[in-house]
Fold this sequence. Notes:
Layout: H1 2-21, E1 33-41, E2 44-53, E3 57-69, E4 72-84, E5 88-98, E6 102-111, E7 114-117, E8 121-125
Amino acid sequence: MTHSVIRIATLAVIGCVAASAFANQPPVNTGISCGIHASTERGMKSLEAVVFSPETISGEYRLSMKGSGGSGSTNINQGGGFTAPKAQTITISKVTVSADAKLNIDFTITAKGVTYDCSNTISYQS
Length: 126
């Protein structure tokens, strides 16, 4: 009997941990996409934080870029509100750094109570 109670309690704890781990994960079919568009021109790297939604959304964004290159170090922190019109890709932030900069990028948006990790580079143009 004691072992059954312990097993049930253990399963309940595991279930709660698993549920909380997925609580802020985006729903599968929201259609919202976001990421970093990178391009290089004249020895500089341009990084644009972009968002697309099939419907108009408003939310908050956070963008952090830290790293270094031949011309020194980079430590950029930005954030604020945004509104993405229906079916349009918008740039919510743009940063220019040295083309040789090695960066760690953390870009998230929160819309409709859901937080999306947008840190990946979705396109690169040189």
